[in-house]
Amino acid sequence: LSKGRYSVHDETVYGFFKRRFGREVAELVSDPMCRGIMAADSRTLGVEAMFPALVRGEKEHRSVIKSLLLSEGGVEKNEYVREAKLQGWRMLNFKHGME
After folding, report:
1. Could you count the other beta carbons within 10 Å of the beta carbon of residue 2?
2. Which of 5, 36, 67, 81 is 20 to 30 A from 98 in CA distance terms?
């Protein structure tokens, strides 16, 4: 996902997610996430304040997903991902659920 370039100062979380991933992701992911974390609307929160790593990753790699994969402590450092790759898993889950 390498569309849109970072150029908007004080972009909202909603605006960032909409620009990078589309309206549905902005509405179905970013808004509930912001309401859960900050009890606020994603259209009023600044993305740089809430998710500085996403903004930094976009600037450095021009791709949010690529930046997450390449980040220090990223996916490759996750024990479940390493094990899944070694054993050729097609699906993974958490041993004791999410709680």
Report:
1. 12
2. 67
Q: Hey, what amino acid is at 41? A: D
Helix H or strand E segment including 30: none
Structure tokens at 21: 């991933």
pTM score: 0.62
Q: What is the C-alpha separation between 17 and 42, in angstroms, rounded?
A: 10
CB 12 within 8 A of CB 47: yes
Give residue-wise pLDDT tens across range 54-80: 888 888 878 888 777 776 655 556 666
The residue written with tokens 């859960």 in the block is: 36
Q: DSSP for 33-92, please give it.
A: HHHHHHSS-TTTSBHHHH-HHHHHHHHHHS-HHHHHHHSTT-GGG-HHHHHHHHHT-S--
